Amino acid sequence: MHRSVHDVPGPVNRLDPVLEPVAQDAPRRVELRLERAGRLVGTVRRPDSTWAAGATVFVLPGDAPELLLPNPTGRGFGGGRTWVAFRGEVRADGTYVVEGLELGASYVAAALEPGGAQSVWVRDVVPTEAVPQVHRDLVLRAPATIRARALAPDGTVLKTARMLLFKSSWMERLEAAEDGVHELDGIVPGAYVLRVDAPDLLRQE
User: Fold this and answer.
1) Is the dihedral of CA 116, 122, 125, 131 positive or negative?
2) What are the C-alpha distances in Å from 3 to residues 8, 17, 31, 34?
3) Contact 160, 152 (CB under 8 A)
4) Contacting residues for 47 by C-beta, under 8 A, at least 6 apart
5) What pLDDT is recorded for position 78?
6) What was the pLDDT predicted at 4?
7) Residue 183 phi/psi, 5° resolution?
8) What angle do CA 4, 6, 12 make, to 5 degrees?
9) What are the tens digits of pLDDT across the range 82-131?
10) Are 35 and 73 in contact (CB under 8 A)?
11) 40 near 100, Cβ under 8 Å?
């Protein structure tokens, strides 16, 4: 019998084929050694202090690419790795549990509700052997709307201007109306960079 032993941190959700080649008719056996995992627990409230039932708490490694933070529901790629957030659903009583965190590792966490409300990212979530369960209460913030106009040196509205909103590696374009007002809805409150480009004029940020 040929046997391969692999150490896997946290619970195993999926088993990939990791067998070493053996004779065609030889029995194959894989052993997975599971280690103790940490968890993040807490509550999530809306801005009006009601429980945010149905929201989702996302947990990412502390060194995950920042492009994932504005939209943690997606996947990120960097450093030869694929980044996918741990998730936990908020129950009717406002509580949540996110399991499978590596002990001693640092994570960031935030809550997101359908419709765009999101909490701030809580950092330094570090489960340990001594304290494997970390408690963090989160509060959603209502999404914001950005409206802006670009003006020429003579004060006229530049209807052909292009506006882009940046935050770290995340970028979104503001839609322009006929009156030259650019608008973007569903923005998580925070600090952003607004870039304005227009023909024959210097770029402004």
Assistant:
1) negative
2) 16, 13, 7, 17
3) no
4) 117, 139, 140, 141, 142
5) 63
6) 42
7) -145, 145
8) 125
9) 778 899 999 999 999 999 999 999 999 999 998 778 898 899 999 999 99
10) no
11) no
In whole angstroms, what is the distance from residue 30 CA to residue 55 CA?
38
Strands 56-61 and 86-89 come out as antiparallel
Element holding 138 (H helix, E strand): strand 138-139
Burial (CB count within 10 angstroms: exposed 0-12, middle 13-18, buried 19+), residue 105: middle
Q: Which residues contact 138 (CB under 8 A, 6 or more apart)?
A: 42, 43, 44, 45, 57, 109, 110, 111, 119, 122
| CA 129, 132, 137, 138 torsion-angle sign | positive
pLDDT tens for each residue of 45-89: 999 999 999 999 999 988 876 666 666 777 766 667 777 889 999
The single-letter code of the amino acid at 170 is W
Question: For residues 69 and 90, what is the distance between their CA atoms, to the nearest angstrom?
Answer: 19
Is pTM, for the whole model, over 0.90? no
Give the bridge partners for 76, in sequence order.
83
